[in-house]
Amino acid sequence: MNEEHIIAELKKQNKQVFAQLVDMYKNRIFSMAYKYTNDYIESQDLAQEIFLKVYKEIKGFKGNSKLSTWIYRVGVNTCLDWKRKKSKTKLTSFDVLDEYLDRMQIEELRDTDKEPERKVIDLEKHKEIHKTIYEMSDIYKNVVIMYHFNDMSYEEIAEALDIPKKTVETRLYRARKILKNQLKKLDVEVMKNEV
């Protein structure tokens, strides 16, 4: 089924095609939502809200971009709206993030090729990366999530966020610099603890 046919069916409110669309994008949308909420349950609710908006607003989709780009734009805008609403009741607990990452990394921890200390250090670095992304300002968080977690190109990100491609490159560069500095700090702390 080509994209034009999918869009036509979605505009007719074809629930079977919509279910296929949800199945195709659910992991990426959930991942995006999680980076904003830092909460597993909230992420599920937010992902559902995003898909509901896609279902309701598809009639207004003009086809000026790829369907995936439009879906991500709806997702980012919904996440930003959620964040604005929640700013009064700021989320600062990383216990949920730690629990989620522990579950996600269980296979890595079972890896018999790594020493136990190395496994723990790798897991801590992974947690620090996610924590740093969660704490980034939205302009950096958006491009990191779209590029590294949703495998979008610079062009697709620029289109989804309605910004120049050069701005995407600059923001991604700065976000990586922030991450690199955080990892350096973590490495220094690990080295101090090992001494």
Please give a quick description of this structure:
The protein is an all-alpha fold and 195 residues long.
What does this structure look like?
It is built from ten helices and no strands. It has helices at residues 3-11, 15-37, 40-57, 67-86, 95-104, 106-110, 116-135, 138-149, 154-161, 165-194. The model is unreliable at 89-97 (pLDDT under 50).
Return the string of H and E elements.
HHHHHHHHHH
Tell me, briefly, the overall form: globular
Helical content (DSSP H or I, runs of 4+): over 70%
Q: Averaging pLDDT over every residue, what do you get?
A: 80
Number of helices: 10
Question: Which secondary structure elements does this structure contain, and how are they paired or packed?
Answer:
Layout: H1 3-11, H2 15-37, H3 40-57, H4 67-86, H5 95-104, H6 106-110, H7 116-135, H8 138-149, H9 154-161, H10 165-194
Helix pairs in contact: 2-3, 2-4, 2-8, 3-4, 4-9, 5-7, 7-10, 8-10, 9-10
Keywords:
mainly alpha, Rna Polymerase Sigma Factor, Chain: A, 10 helices, globular
